[in-house]
Amino acid sequence: MRNTGDIRVLPQHIAIIMDGNGRWASKRLLPHNAGHRAGAQNLRKLSEEIEKLGIKYLTVYALSTENWKRPQKEVQGLIKLMHEYFQQYIDDSKKNDMKLTFIGDVSRFEPDLQQKIETLKTLTRGKNGLHVTLAINYGARDELTRAVRRIAEEVKNGLLNPDDINEETLAKRLDGYPTPDPDLLIKAGGEMRLSNFMLWQLAYTEMYFTDILWPDFGIKDLNAALEWFGSRARRYGGR
Ligand code: IPE
Ligand code: IPE
Ligand code: MG
Fold it and tell me: Are 193 and 202 contacting, i.e. CB atoms less than 8 angstroms apart?
């Protein structure tokens, strides 16, 4: 059992921007992909820890819609890493309770990676452990644009009346529905920006920025973030 000390409230949903892999590798004179590998390994370790705490949802930003602009070698390395790790998660699914889902436009990926994604979703659909959502080829603006396009099509086809459109109409058409909004966002890597991550869902999320590079972000850093979260007063615009 973990010593919860003065942690009064745990978040139900943690979102993480796993940034800093490249700098972690550069500091060690290693190629960027070695940093991504270390980052993926860290995610496996930390998600187990998060599951043990009884936290229900974890969403992680693994590949953005803008990351395709990187050198081909790095992009190919990231795809290869996804193949490897998705296979590991498939193999683990027999003994694990984790549920895996995805946000982002996965139609951009090659068919065999899409197949692995489908397998992973199917194998873990009924699981009751930590619900991990991987954001791959994810961009909040892309997600919102796709949702608006769907709404427009439904209106055009007479399935939806513009007068009936409310916040829920849009929220329901985002990729992660019905996962609740994140309570806590952790951004590793030292930068104070969202880099196109969950712009709608983070409206009232507590944001924790740390200089620690993602592969170095360990259990004690997670505990520090949780302690900080426990001391927040969330008002949602109220008094
Ligand atoms: C984040 O690490 C992971 C991805 C974007 C895939 P970076 O590769 O962006 O790391 P830095 O920001 O260059 O250190
Ligand atoms: C955000 O990091 C995307 C992921 C962590 C997957 P980036 O490194 O791509 O973001 P910027 O370019 O620094 O804003
Ligand atoms: Mg970065």
Answer: no
pLDDT 10s digit of each residue in the chain, 239 long?
444 455 569 999 999 999 999 999 999 999 999 999 999 999 999 999 999 999 999 999 999 999 999 999 999 999 999 999 999 999 999 999 999 999 999 999 999 999 999 999 999 999 999 999 999 999 999 999 999 999 999 999 999 999 999 999 999 999 999 999 999 999 999 999 999 999 999 999 999 999 999 999 999 999 999 999 999 999 999 99
CA of 105 from ligand 3 middle (Å) equals 20
Give me the amino acid identity at 96. N
The sheet that has 206-209: what strands, in order across it? 99-103, 131-135, 57-61, 13-17, 184-187, 206-209
Per the residue annotation, which of 67, 96, 196, 223 is the catalytic one? 67
142 is catalytic: no
Q: What are the residues whose beta carbons fall under 8 Å from the beta carbon of 15, sequence distance 6 or more?
A: 58, 59, 60, 61, 182, 184, 185, 186, 197, 198, 201, 202, 205
Of 6, 19, 33, 157, the active-site residue reads: 19
DSSP 47-74: HHHHHHTT--EEEEE--BTTGGGS-HHH
